[in-house]
Design goal:
The chain has 444 residues and is mainly alpha-helical. The protein folds into four domains: 146 residues; 97 residues; 92 residues, no CATH class; 65 residues. It is built from twelve helices and six strands. The strands form three sheets. Strands 1-2 form a two-stranded antiparallel ribbon. It has a two-stranded antiparallel sheet with strand order 3-4. Strands 5-6 form a two-stranded parallel ribbon. Keywords: Coiled coil.
Length: 444
C-alpha cells in the first residue's frame, strides 16, 4: 500500500510497522550519506579556501544546499521519532493512534518555510518556486534531499577531483621547469638571447598563473561528462597544462641539442677547418692547372677558377669565438649551417678542378689511343708502313707539342686509326668528326 496518499485507508498495525522499519533504514542511509558529505575532503577544502569565479558562486549555493539538507533531515528525523513514540504507546495501537500514524506516514507532515531556500541561496524545489511555505510528505522530503545531495556532491566531487589532479602535476612540471631553466642558463640559453629562453620564461609565467587559478577556481578546469547525471561525472580539463608540458619538452630537446654541440664543438670545428682547407687546396690546384692548360692547350675555353670564399672563413672564426665564450646556443645553428656550406664548397672546388683539367685529360686519352694503335700494328709487322709512319708522326707532333690544338690532334689520331684499320683488313668505324665523343678504335 502506498504511504503517500493522505486520503487512503488507515494503515493497520502491520503496515505501520513495515513502514516504520523501511523509514528507519532510509533514515540511517541518509544520515550516513550526509555525514560522509560533511567529512568529504573536498568539502573541507572548499570551506577553508579563498575561492573566486565560478567556484565561489557554486560554493555559495552548495553551502546553502547542505544547510537546507540538514534542515530537511532534522524534520524527517522529528517526524520519524514522533511516529515511533506513538507506535510505542501501547502494544496494540488504537484506532486513533493508527489514524495519527497514517497522517504522519502518508500525509504531508513536514512544513518548511518557503523563504528558507531563497534566504540560504539553495535552489527551490521543482515546481514550487516563490512559495511562502512548502509542505512535504516523507517521500517528497526524501526526493528533495536526494536532489540537494546530488547537486552538492557533484560540486564537491568536481572541485576535489581538480585539486587532486592538477596542482600536484603542475608542481612536478614546475620542478622539471626549474631544472631545465638552470641547465639552460648554464649553456647560455637565456631570455632575450635565445627563443628557448623566452619559451622557458613564458612557461614559468603560465604555470604560476595556472596554479593560482586551479587553487582558487577549480571548477573553471572541470569538464562535465556529456549525458551523465551521476554526481562528479566528468574529468579535469588539462588543456593548458598539456600544452605547457609539450612546450617544455620542446625546450628540453633544444637544450639537449645545445649540450651535444658543447660536447663535440671542438671536433666539429676541426673538421670544418679540414674541409675548408681541402677546398682551398683543390681550388689552388685548379688555378695551377688552369695556367698549365692555357699554356699547353690551344683554342680551348678554360673556365675561370674563383678564389676561396672569405665569408666561410669569417663564419668559422665566429664559431670559434662562440666556443671560447661558451655561447653554445649561438654556436649550434652556426655549425649546422657551416657544415653544409663547407661540403658544398669542397664539391664546387672539385668540380672546378675537373672542368679545368678536362682538356689535359682529353690530350692524355688521345696520346694513349695513338700509342695503343702503334703497338697493335707493330704486332702485325706493319709498323714501318710509310703511310702509318707519316700519320703517326704528324699526330704525335700535335699531341706532344705546346700549345696543342686538341681538335686537329684528334683528327690526326682518327686518320692514323683509319689507315691502320685499312691495312689490317678491317672495316673502319669512323667516329663523328664533329667532336671527341667516341674515341674507341676497331679493337675496342
Amino acid at each position: 500500500m502506498a504511504d503517500t496518499d493522505p486520503t487512503g485507508p488507515v494503515l493497520d498495525r502491520d503496515e505501520v510497522d513495515r513502514a516504520l522499519a523501511r523509514l528507519g533504514a532510509e533514515h540511517e542511509a541518509i544520515e550516513t550519506s550526509l555525514l560522509a558529505l560533511q567529512d568529504h575532503a573536498g568539502r573541507r577544502l572548499l570551506e577553508g579556501a579563498q575561492l573566486t569565479g565560478l567556484t565561489a558562486e557554486r560554493w555559495t549555493t552548495t553551502e546553502a544546499s547542505i544547510t537546507l539538507l540538514w534542515t530537511c533531515f532534522d524534520a524527517y528525523t522529528d517526524v520519524l521519532r514522533t511516529a515511533r513514540d506513538i507506535r510505542s504507546r501501547r502494544r496494540w495501537s488504537s484506532r486513533e493512534d493508527l489514524a495519527e500514524l497514517t497522517e504522519l506516514l502518508r500525509g504531508e507532515p513536514v512544513t518548511l518555510a518557503g523563504g528558507a531556500s531563497a534566504a540560504s541561496g539553495a535552489p527551490p524545489a521543482h515546481g514550487a518556486p516563490g512559495r511562502l511555505s512548502e509542505r512535504y510528505s516523507l517521500a517528497g522530503l526524501v526526493d528533495r534531499m536526494n536532489e540537494l545531495y546530488a547537486t552538492s556532491l557533484d560540486m564537491v566531487v568536481a572541485a576535489d577531483a581538480v585539486w587532486s589532479a592538477l596542482p600536484a602535476r603542475i608542481d612536478l612540471l614546475a620542478a622539471e621547469l626549474h631544472r631545465t631553466s638552470r641547465l639552460a642558463h648554464s649553456v647560455g640559453v637565456r631570455p632575450g638571447e635565445h627563443p628557448a629562453g623566452d619559451d622557458l620564461e613564458r612557461i614559468t609565467r603560465t604555470l604560476t598563473k595556472l596554479r593560482e587559478q586551479v587553487v582558487s577556481d577549480p571548477l573553471a578546469f572541470w569538464k562535465p561528462a556529456e549525458g551523465s547525471s551521476a554526481p562528479g561525472g566528468g574529468r579535469p580539463d588539462t588543456t593548458v597544462y598539456d600544452r605547457e608540458a609539450r612546450a617544455l619538452e620542446d625546450v628540453r630537446r633544444e637544450i639537449d641539442a645545445v649540450l651535444t654541440v658543447r660536447q663535440d664543438a671542438e671536433k666539429r670545428i676541426v673538421r670544418l677547418r679540414d674541409v675548408l682547407s681541402r677546398a682551398d687546396r683543390t681550388l689552388a690546384e685548379a688555378r695551377t692547372a688552369r695556367g698549365e692548360v692555357l699554356a699547353k692547350i690551344a683554342a680551348t675555353e678554360v673556365p675561370v677558377v674563383s678564389g676561396p670564399p672569405t665569408a666561410l672563413q669569417e663564419q668559422l672564426s665566429t664559431a670559434a669565438e662562440y666556443r671560447r665564450h661558451a655561447q653554445w646556443h649561438r654556436l649550434s645553428p652556426l655549425l649546422e649551417s657551416l657544415e653544409q656550406k663547407a661540403e658544398d664548397e669542397l664539391l664546387r672546388a672539385r668540380e672546378s678542378l675537373t672542368a679545368v683539367t678536362a682538356p689535359l685529360a682529353v690530350r692524355a686519352e688521345l696520346r694513349g689511343r695513338l700509342d695503343a694503335y702503334k703497338a697493335k700494328v707493330a704486332r702485325y709487322g706493319l709498323a714501318e708502313d710509310s703511310l702509318l709512319v707519316e700519320r703517326y708522326e704528324k699526330a704525335r707532333r700535335m699531341l706532344w707539342s705546346a700549345p696543342c690544338d686538341l681538335r686537329a690532334a684528334e683528327q690526326a689520331v682518327l686518320r692514323y686509326q683509319q689507315a691502320a684499320a685499312e691495312l689490317l683488313g678491317g672495316t673502319p668505324r669512323v667516329p663523328d668528326q664533329g667532336g671527341p665523343e667516341d674515341r674507341r678504335g676497331p679493337g675496342a
